[in-house]
Design brief:
A: 336 residues, alpha/beta, Nucleotidyltransferase, domain 5, five-stranded mixed sheet, 10 helices, globular, B: Rossmann fold, seven-stranded mixed sheet
Chain lengths: 336, 134
């Protein structure tokens, strides 16, 4: 079964949250990378999939088929099947893991379970340039805010994390307070680019390398209530400046902790991951600080930053090399 | 009762004392009023040592108490249709007999109508919070 294949071909499946995704990798190179929302968009035009395990049930076969078709490989050429083992919504994880298990069993090839957050970090090994170890990765998304220290592919330590809201959530909820539609994070970024940082919000005071965004949200709420009392058009008249100020406050907090983490560990290889890496302010802040602090910065293309299966595939590739396979009685974990 | 941040432990204790045997606790209140903050304190008092963070994105977080019981923490804020909650398999959680702490319950009124819930309402009262139980 494992008699030195000439290629390592891996089919990877990711279903931890909203999107069903599948990717095919050959020797660590991405041959195809398909996400259900994209597929549905291609098929029906602009329909956003619902968050549900049933949506995963519906998408999984078409998504996998498309990933295989785009890769030019067929099932019999695969050396392993990889899936996201957790953390995530259990119903959603179950769809991906059951499918992956069944397929690996039917093809009689190994099964590889992948940690979703580790995959976000290892997504940096998909494109060039790849970071060298050790490096720090700031992972920021709607559900997570972490600083992870990577000493090797599988040596993964979370050295800082949010104690309440994630950074992406802080963006989305601030947008909601401004009356912008959900998810409003990208809109804050858009308006902020036309605005000036003119309002001051209190910076979260939280020890060590941890983050907190809950207090900032309340601070913004009070600020808006006070201003709107004096001028009911305050928000519409000042939207770009408010957005620029909110964005600045969130990014300052992220950058402060990232700088401390780099100073403390002496690590100057700094990587960014997660959906919020699309935020232009955050990208600029990392690049700018990188120049000042002589960091080597790594920001992968956006398709590898949001939830995707290519990151699961690259993680599985290294696990394959290390022969880290799942037993047949494996089950997904909502908490991992 | 009315409480400020320093009195948060009192507010959480007041809730625990007055919740009787309710298993579904619904937290009503505007964004930023302190629902998650109150729940964090509640979980601490209920013996959860895990890091408690907002489930706005994940929809549900599961925590374990020191004596091994599960507590579920929901946030239905980003739910667009109640169908999504049916698809999530909410019965598995609500009927588990474990404590369910629910933020943004108004998003799933249709489901909660048929359940017996403890209704907790939070509101801002100057710089303090007002908490009522029904």
């Amino acid at each position: 079964m494992l008699s030195q294949p000439s290629h390592i071909n891996i089919l990877a499946i990711e279903s931890s949250c909203d999107d069903t995704a599948a990717a095919v990798l050959q020797n660590g190179n991405v041959l195809s990378n398909v996400v259900s929302s994209q597929l549905i968009h291609e098929l029906y035009g602009g329909v956003v999939p619902e968050l549900a395990s049933r949506a995963h049930q519906q998408s999984i076969v078409p998504v996998v088929e498309l990933a295989l078709k785009k890769s030019g490989l067929n099932l019999n050429q695969l050396q392993a099947i990889a899936f996201t083992k957790g953390p995530g919504l259990i119903g959603s994880l179950m769809v991906g893991s059951s499918f992956a298990k069944s397929l690996a069993y039917a093809l009689n090839i190994p099964l590889i379970g992948v940690h979703h957050m580790e995959a976000h970090v290892l997504a940096h090994f998909i494109p060039e340039p790849k970071p060298s170890f050790p490096f720090l990765c700031l992972t920021v998304s709607g559900g997570h805010t972490q600083i992870v220290r990577m000493d090797d592919y599988f040596s993964f330590e979370i050295i800082g994390k949010t104690i309440d809201d994630a950074a992406g959530e802080a963006f989305d909820k601030s947008a909601k307070l401004l009356g912008l539609p959900y998810p409003g994070g990208p809109l804050i970024d858009k308006y902020a680019q036309a605005g000036k940082v003119s309002f001051k919000f209190s910076q979260p005071q939280i020890p060590d390398l941890d983050f907190s965004f809950s207090g900032l949200k309340t601070n913004i709420l009070y600020f808006l209530q006070k201003e709107v009392k004096q001028n009911e058009n305050f928000v519409s008249e000042n939207l770009p400046d408010i957005c620029a100020s909110i964005q600045d406050a969130i990014i300052k907090h992220l950058m402060k902790k990232l700088i401390i983490a780099s100073d403390q560990t002496g690590i100057k290889n700094i990587a960014l991951a997660g959906g919020v890496s699309a935020n232009s302010g955050l990208r600029n802040a990392i690049l700018q600080t990188g120049i000042e602090k002589q960091w080597q910065t790594f920001i992968p293309p956006f398709e590898f930053c949001t939830d995707n299966a290519a990151m699961v595939g690259i993680t599985a590739h290294y696990k394959f090399l290390a022969q880290q396979f799942e037993p047949a009685d494996t089950a997904p974990l909502a908490r991992f | 009762m009315i409480y400020n941040l320093a009195e948060l432990p009192l507010a959480a204790n007041y809730l625990i004392e007055n919740a009787k045997s309710h298993k579904l606790w619904c937290f009503h209140g505007e964004m930023g009023v302190g629902k998650t903050t109150l729940i964090k304190e509640l979980l601490l008092q209920l013996g959860v040592q895990d890091l408690v963070s907002s489930p706005s994105f994940s929809i549900v977080n599961e925590y374990k108490t020191q004596d091994g019981k599960s507590i579920y923490h929901f946030d239905f804020y980003r739910i667009k249709s109640v169908e999504e909650v049916y698809d999530l398999g909410f019965e598995m959680y609500f009927d588990s007999g474990n404590l369910c702490l629910i933020e943004w319950p108004e998003k799933i009124d249709e489901i909660l109508e048929n359940e017996t819930c403890l209704t907790i309402t939070l509101s801002l009262s100057q710089e303090k919070r007002q908490l009522t139980i029904a």
